[in-house]
Amino acid sequence: MNVQNRFFALFLIGFFLSLNSFSQTYPELFSTEEPLELQMRFSSKQVKSETNDSTFIDTFLMYKNNEGGWDSLDIDLRARGNFRRDNCSYPPIRIKIKKKKSKETPFEGQKSLKLVMPCNDSKNAPSYIAKEYLAYKMYEKVTPYFFPTRLVKISFIDEDDKKGEVSELIGFLIEDDDLVAEKFGGEIFDEKKLGPTFLVDSATVRHDLFQYMIGNTDWSSMFYHNQKIMKLSDTEFIPLAYDFDMTGLVSPPYAQVSNLVDIEKITDRLYRGFCRDEGIMQAVRQEFLAKEPELMALVDNQLFMEERDVKLAKSYLKEFFSTMSNDKQFESQIMMKCRR
Q1: Is pLDDT above 60 for 207?
Q2: I need a surface site. Which of 25, 48, 141, 270 has the fewest CB within 10 A?
Q3: What letters, b where the CB count within 10 A reaches 16 and e where it falls short, cover 32-44?
Q4: For residue 186, how many C-alpha atoms fall within 13 Å in the half-sphere facing its CB?
């Protein structure tokens, strides 16, 4: 990197780090790290069989209130996504909440929520959910543009189970994309496909390096796959990432590598971002290196992760930071691999 680019990069580092000091204003539901306790019952088969996105099932959920008692909330729900719907016992869920029903509850102001449930009730299921949740919390540290999340403990009765046994599950809630956009005075942009080069450079490089850090190739800015686009103005478009299960960091048993990318294992990394100005790439590189201790601390403090998975996650992340700190590796694995 020449002297001019190096000077520019140092200037951008300070500017971008100041942007990262931005903090969202959280509604009550997402204002604490304490897991929210829920009770739910519905037919998994029925939910998975309804493939029309406009078809919701009427039901209710019970939640533990601040006094330690249980309150109920009427909701509508449907399955979302495709792969986990077909390959898991419990599909990811979209929950609709009537505005009048949510008043004076932790869900006040929430019209639509995503609920990520474990694939099944195997012994290791909580750890996989914890690692996916960890990815969301790490994303909060590298960009101001993210989906707030909240861990939940779910006592679930599947109505397909004739014995009516209760499954104790770990999951997490994700705030609706429209509410996230409103906080920034923006809106979710889904009118047409948007070329990746139209996205704001700094926010996009943060997104792309984060996806590389967690070993995620299951996304596309061009086709809005596992990504929402937030429009802040006619010239400002920001990526909002979600769905981090098919990653090297999480590495669940059902993970598959797409035949559209040139890697062999889910834990292999491949930088899929488009090329940007070298000064911006170098500046965001330094942001990530500065955040290494903070990101590693998140792994140590993550609930529901088994000790073995903590060690594996830290080892996996250290490989990333080794690449980021080495000029030759950064050049070969990032700068030379970016898409043009």
Answers
A1: yes
A2: 25
A3: eeebbebbbbbeb
A4: 21
- Report if pTM > 0.70: yes
Read off the amino acid at residue 177.
D
What whole-number distance in Å separates Cα of residue 23 and Cα of residue 201?
Answer: 20
- Give pLDDT tens digits for 225-247: 899 999 999 999 999 999 999 99
Cβ atoms within 10 Å of 79's Cβ, excluding its own: 23
How many angstroms separate the CA atoms of 252 and 316, rounded?
15
In total, the chain counts a number of residues equal to: 340
Predicted pLDDT of residue 144: 96
- State how far the Cα of 144 lies from the Cα of 180, in Å rounded to an integer: 11
